[in-house]
Amino acid sequence: MKLSKKHLKTLKEAPNEAQLVSHQLMIRANLIKKEAAGIYTYMPMGYRTVRKISQIVREEMDKIGTQELYMPHANPAELWKESGRWYAYGPELWRIKDRNGRDFCLAPTCEEMITDLVKNEVSSYKELPFAFYHIQWKFRDEARPRYGLMRGREFLMKDAYSFDKDPETLHEAYMAQYHAYEEIFDRCGLTYRVVEADNGPIGGSNSHEFSALSDVGESDLVYCENCGMAATVERAECRDDVPVQEEMEELRAVFTPGTKTIADVCDYLKIDVKKSIKALMFVTYDIELNPADYVCVFIRGDRELNMIKLVNALDVPEHYIEFADEEEMGAETGIVGGFTGPIGLKNCITVVDSELVGTVNMCAGANQEDHHMLGVCYGRDYTGDIVTDVKVLAEGDPCPHCGQPVKHTKGIEVGQIFKLGTKYSESMNCTFKDEDGQDKFYWMGCYGVGVTRTMQAIIDQHNDKDGIIWPVSVAPYHVIVTVINPKDIVQMAVAEEIEAALEKQGVEVIVDDRDERPGVKFKDADLIGIPVRITVGKFAAEGKVEYKLRRESNHELVTKEEAIDRANALVKAEIYGK
Ligand code: ATP
Ligand code: MG
Questions:
Q1: Are the C-beta atoms of residues 473 and 575 closer than 8 Å to each other?
Q2: What is the distance between the alpha carbons of residues 86 and 104, in angstroms, rounded to a whole number?
Q3: What backbone torsions phi and psi does residue 240 show, to the nearest 5 degrees?
Q4: What per-residue confidence (pLDDT) applies to 317?
Q5: Beta bridge partners of 36
Q6: For ligand 1, what atom is nearest to the CA of residue 218?
Q7: At 569, is the secondary structure helix, strand, or coil?
Q8: CA–CA distances in Å: residue 127 to residues 41, 176, 381
Q9: pTM for this structure?
Q10: Top-level class of domain 252-388
């Protein structure tokens, strides 16, 4: 391919709104162009990489026997009402109407569609187990589309769905996908961690997230170097501190003027923050968005609340809960902003973190302006409507499995797999006839890869100050032949000879024959990150060219034959070598 005949408009600078290096590079290298918030055109170079990643995903899905099909974007609302997610998914679900006023949504994921399909398509145990997938543009009206392709509103995703007769065979299907995901992300050149994850609004019982390690990732991960425990912070269980054994003191109110925060009150009363109880107030909504319940959460003063654990404990969707207006809530429940404690509340659900069970002589708000209580004892003075672990496993806390201090890191969630169990088959009444003649619900799993997010995660992990450094497997082209002087007939002839020889071997070549200064061509080659650069210049007449890898700084003068052989060998080794 001759670059002089193609469109490539690289930029020296990225727009200010691109904060992440990976986002800046995608714009500067002309891979994507923004059309609206979270909505992009994929330019020719960018789209080649999208297709390469898709193809890797496709090959690994096919290898484990998952069958490719293609389901529609437009999903009838009825299906989503059947599963209950028309309401539970909230404003992220992109809802549309047809000309007759019928409700549809643009698919953010396809559990409903596939369950309905299988219900009508498969009936006998003889066909089990089976799994389908497609690679489809998904729509999610994200609250904060940002960071380029990381959080788009229209993005490419592979979603697969497995159907099994029992939990044991579901586990086999799940593990097959798990290993396929390892292959996919290895082939994409990513450094990643597999962590236990929360099932979130998709539901089900078990989940793993594949997270590409990155300082700019939006997934908070926690892991233990001693025993290998790894989980998202949302999901990670905590080991409760054992309560200190003391005589119970009498409960008493003390004057604590203006001490609205835990730090203030502990300072004022000269007590350890671990002897204090922190209160957080929320209101939940029902599906018609009317306020449903006030919720008061109590955790130890030094702990942070884990919102995901809270919504799981309350069994409400994440977007149907928000911080309460303390004045309004106070009138109903008796809380007093800044001075809220667990004793004497009414008309609200109290959630008490499990670590408070058995604690004595704690300090908590007195539900009275400028006052706190001392001598607060769990059991004697208060309990909770819900008592469970709702706190964050912080860096340095003991690992829930082995007790060693845990570490935190960040990642970009590039894939997630879920055991759904019978959640969708039951709600949508999707059954098969088993050997014994009984109708049984399928045991389902679902498995997602964010293809376009993966593309940006690769760039995030593979770049330097000059631009992208694509792994060979996903590079838009494998080799760039930079012609120093395209008007020189000999140089062009050598470039074309190299191009033809490599293309014959299946190596993808782009020839930079543009009428530009060599410096401009080198800069562009580095920016777009083609793995191998072969420069044809003044030694062309002697059959010699310069061979350079994008990821290395040195270059060598070699014969054109050697350049061809080396490039071919490298591409073969890195794509098919394993
Ligand atoms: P997140 O927690 O980041 O919002 P999710 O858990 O909602 O993601 P899934 O429903 O598991 O995402 O979707 C499967 C995959 O699709 C994710 O692992 C991720 O790689 C990708 N993905 C999800 N949302 C987006 C988005 N808004 N933009 C780009 N990719 C996305
Ligand atoms: Mg996820």
A1: yes
A2: 10
A3: -70, 140
A4: 85
A5: 39
A6: 3
A7: helix
A8: 40, 18, 59
A9: 0.94
A10: alpha beta
Spatial separation of the C-alpha atoms in residues 283 and 342, rounded to whole Å: 17
Domain 477-576: which topology? Rossmann fold (3.40.50)
Work out the number of other CB atoms within 10 angstroms of the CB of residue 549: 16
> How far apart are the CA of 60 and the centre of ligand 2, in A?
20
The strand ranges marked E within 454-526 are: 463-464, 467-468, 479-483, 509-512
State the pLDDT at residue 578. Answer: 47
In whole angstroms, give the CA distance from residue 441 to residue 262. 50
- Domain 58-236+408-459: CATH class, spelled out: alpha beta
Angle between helices 44-63 and 451-461 (to 10 degrees): 110
Contact present, 147 and 19 (Cβ < 8 Å): yes
What are 463-466's contacts with CB under 8 Å, separation 24+? 463/21, 463/22, 463/25, 463/529, 466/523, 466/526, 466/527
Give the pair of three-digit tokens for residue 130. 């089976």
- DSSP calls for 264-321: HHHHHHT--GGGBEEEEEEEEE-TT--EEEEEEEEEETT--B-HHHHHHHHT--GGGE
Of ligand 1's listed atoms, the one at least distance from the Cα of 448 is 14
CA–centroid distance, residue 450 to ligand 1 (Å):
6
How does DSSP classify residue 92? Answer: G
pLDDT digits (tens, 9 = 90+) for 442-468: 999 999 999 999 999 999 999 999 999
Residues facing residue 479 across a β-bridge: 509, 532
Give span(s): CATH 3.40.50.800, the chain.
477-576
Q: Which residue has its alpha carbon closest to ligand 1 atom 27?
A: 151
The ligand 1 site (C-beta within 6 Å) comprises 109, 140, 142, 151-152, 155, 157, 200, 413-416, 448, 450, 452-453
Q: CB-side exposure of 405: number of CA atoms within 13 Å?
A: 4
C-alpha gyration radius of the chain: 29
List every span in the chain annotated with CATH 3.30.930.10: 58-236+408-459
- Cβ neighbors of 503 (< 8 A, separation 6 or more) are 509
| Ligand with the closest atom to the CA of 159 | 1
Name the residue with the closest Cα to ligand 1, atom 31: 450
Determine which residue's CA is closest to atom 18 belonging to ligand 1.
Answer: 415
Which of 413, 418, 446 has the most ligand 1 atoms within 8 A of CB, as the residue to mutate? 413
Pure H helices in 288-440 = 307-314, 326-333, 423-427
171 burial via Cβ count (<10 Å: 0-12, 13-18, 19+): middle
Q: Whose CA is nearest to atom 2 of ligand 1?
A: 413
Long-range (24+ apart) CB contacts under 8 A made by 260-267 are: 260/337, 260/338, 260/339, 261/338, 262/301, 262/302, 265/363, 265/372, 266/301, 266/363
What pLDDT score was predicted for residue 204? 67
Cα–ligand 2 centroid distance for 416 (angstroms): 5
How remote is the CA of residue 65 from the centroid of ligand 2, in Å? Answer: 23
pLDDT of residue 454: 98
Low-confidence ranges of the chain (pLDDT < 50): 578
Q: Does 129 sit behind a cis peptide bond, omega within 30 degrees of 0 on the bond before it?
A: yes
On whether the CB atoms of residues 74 and 96 are closer than 8 A, the answer is yes
Could you tell me what percentage of the chain is helix, strand and coil, using 3-state DSSP and rounding each to the nearest 5?
30, 30, 40
Give ranges for CATH 3.90.960.10 in the chain.
252-388
